[in-house]
Amino acid sequence: MKSIRVKKKMTAFATSFVTVATVMTTAGPAHAAEYKVSDNCDVPWISCSYGDLWLFYNSKEIAIQDGYIRSAFVTFYANVSDHWGTSQYQGSSLSTYRYAFGNGGNGNGQYMKNNAASVQNCAELDNYRVYYNSGYGGTSQYFAKPGPYEDCNLTNLITALKNNNASSHFA
């Protein structure tokens, strides 16, 4: 009788193993989700505690007229090594956040990388640089923080960076 019980247990184990192996081989790839954000603080794994860099779709002459913002923009509150976006696995799911111009106006919904024409630094404590390449490389332009009694200074990107901007970093 012992041999019958062992055989039944072995058969049950083998059946379970085959079932699990079949499920594992037919399972689909990890789930992926992609989101458009116009503020890098909307990315769950980015900690935003300082900084305030605005990148506008239009040049400063069009971006703000008569005191109103007419251009879509993106805001960054930290270093951004790639204006295309950022990705991270969370468990078995890949989440990707693409930076896109938002907040209405010209360029709303357009991807931000290599599309900005002007920059406004409103950070109280930080200066910024915008770079031609991802990873903070190539030609760059410096944007000083506003003085204690100054408004944020809206500045056009230099010709080499206008619609060719790929990263930004505290300077």
Put the structure in a nutshell:
The chain has 171 residues and is of the alpha+beta class. The protein has a single domain, classed as Crystallins (Gamma-B Crystallin, domain 1), CATH 2.60.20.
CATH homologous superfamily caption: Crystallins
CATH architecture name: Sandwich
Number of E strands: 12
Structural class: alpha+beta
CATH class: Mainly Beta
**Helical stretch tally:** 2
| Radius of gyration from the alpha-carbon trace, in angstroms | 25 Å
The portion of residues assigned to helices is: 10-25%
Q: Span from first to last CA?
A: 80 Å
Tally of separate domains = 1
Strand content: 25-35%
Low-confidence stretches: 6-28
Characterise the protein shown here.
- The chain is an alpha+beta fold.
- It has one domain: Gamma-B Crystallin, domain 1 (Sandwich), CATH 2.60.20.10.
- The chain is 17% helix and 33% strand.
- The protein has 2 helices and 12 strands; from the N terminus they run αββαββββββββββ.
- The strands form 4 sheets. The chain has a 4-stranded antiparallel β-sheet, with no helix packed on it. It has a 3-stranded mixed β-sheet with strand order 1-7-6, with no helix packed on it.
- A hairpin with a 2-residue loop joins strand 3 and strand 4.
- The longest helix has 25 residues, at 2-26.
- It starts with a helix and ends with a strand.
